[in-house]
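Same chain as my last thread, 152 residues:
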Amino acid sequence: MGSEINPYAAPQSAPARPVPITVDFGQRRMRFAVGFAALLMIGSLLASAFAIYDIESIVVSGPLLSLFALVLAVLSIRSDLRGFWILSAATVAMSIGCFLTIFLGEWSPGDAQVPIGAASVVFAIVIQAGWVMVRSVWERGKGLGEGDSNPQ
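reply #2:
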């Protein structure tokens, strides 16, 4: 009975570990966050142009940009993407501010055309400063991606 192999005995050598599959969710999240930030900044320019032409277009563009901003806020939970929270918060605040101004002032579309159109143009110009954040995050992400290779 001493020469038989005991199937319940502890192994004599360390078990081989499987090779980990490298999926870089951080790079993917960074790319999506940069894409949504660019979408917000380009979308705000388009939305302000449509708002100048027809103020009722904000009924679609406001909630749509707010939805993109909320997605960007969720994507930028990581500490290296937190700068995008400013873009997200500013976009949502602009949408809520326009809604409350029109609702509480009981404005008709004609009353809201000039002030809300002007506010949307100012917002679209100011939010273009976000390209500096996008560039910074993109360059930092490229630098991290190059040095991550593990030659084993």
